[in-house]
Structure formats: structure tokens, C-alpha cells
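Quick note —
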Amino acid sequence: MQVLTLEAVDKRFGNGLLALQGTTMSVAASEFVALLGPSGCGKTTVLRLAAGLDGISGGRLDAPALRDPGAAQTAFVFQEATLMPWASVYDNVWLPLRLAGTGRGAAADRIERALRSVGLADFADAFPGELSGGMKMRVSIARALVTEPQLLLMDEPFAALDEITRQKLNGDLLASWQSKDLAALFVTHSVYESVFLSQRVLVMSARPGRIVAERVIDEPYPRTPAFRTSESYLRHCVALTQALEAAHAPEPAA
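Predicted structure written out below.
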């Protein structure tokens, strides 16, 4: 079953900018898909359309946020953790449930499960100012998971972190995803991250963005750090690097 489907989707903004043209892609239930491309190619625009934050200009879009706008079936993790600095970790994770009318006590079990899933069970009473960048992003992920979404959208959430923290969070994210029945669409400009995380990687062209290549990462989970040094990992990385270079090579002069 497809959770998210875009068919020949166009997106033109009010200033005339054509961000997407003929974009076709899908994400199946329980599937982890990465959207790969450099800055400005329309990756974030795809996420915003999938989240129902923007409307399409042409084509067809089917997404949980559009099928049932009142249900919390889509969660979005942004590039920045965007936490409330005056609220504890616990209350930051509670926020989407509180906005939906669920009291603090009634939400307790779900909040505690979400915190355990990202390794922050012992930091429920801490405040964002007391946390590292990686821990703040864990809180942001827990806040997304607490809604028990059908579709998890992630917009380069680890881009600002050091490589050691980033790799650790990649592994933790996969563990959380495997423990839940949800689909994930992960935007990144890192070939290496896309290969480690995903079952499929979709390569976007330069703006106006569209999908120009797909790579199936047919490697088993769980993916340990040893996968990063394997021949198969390197093979996938080389193929995606070549696809990315081909997609963004300058056109020959006439």
C-alpha cells in the first residue's frame, strides 16, 4: 500500500519560481525512502507538499495529511530542533498531544515510550539549554514519534551535527523506525547517509526538481557501523554519486 504518492506534480510559487516539474514518486507503508540532491533542487518543497503545508500547482498528490486533515498521521522533523527553551524535554515531547487536547497525565505512557525510543528516558526533566545539539534533535524526533504517525517526514535533521553524532543518530533513527509501523521520507544531501538509512534512494534533478534516478539499497537491517566499510556500501555510494553528478552536470554549450 502506498502511503504517499506524487504523480507528475508541479509546484510554482507566487513569485513565479517553478520549484518542481513533473515530479513522480511514492513511499509505501513501512518503507524508508531517502530523497537525495543538493540545496535548492526542491527536496524540502516535496516534504512541505507531503505534509499539507503547501498546495500543488499541477499533477496529483495523495498523502495522509490530505486524506484526513484532522488526524495526526503525519509528523515533520525540521533541520532545526525548534524546541521551546522554557519547557522541559517531557513537555516539549508532549506538545503535539497537548495541542490535540490530550492531558499531560493521559499522554504519559506515549511520552515515556517516545523518550525511551530515542534514549532520553533519563532526561525528561532537563531543559533544552542543558542539552547537546544531538540530544536536542533526539527530543525533536521523540516529539514526532509521540503522535504515532503513519508518515514521518525528515528534512536534513542531522546536517548540522558532527560526523560521530550524526552516525550514532542514524543508527538510533533506524532502530526507532524498525520498532514502529511507519513510512519515512528522509531528505539529505549526503550520499553516505542516504545509503546507510534507506531501502530506496531517489535522486532529484536541479530546479525545477523531478526524480531522475532511483537506487534500491537491498541490504538487510539492522545496519551496523560495519556496513559503512563493506564493499556493498561502497558500491551503492559510487552508483549514487555518479547518478547525482549526471543529474547536475552542466549542459554542453551549443
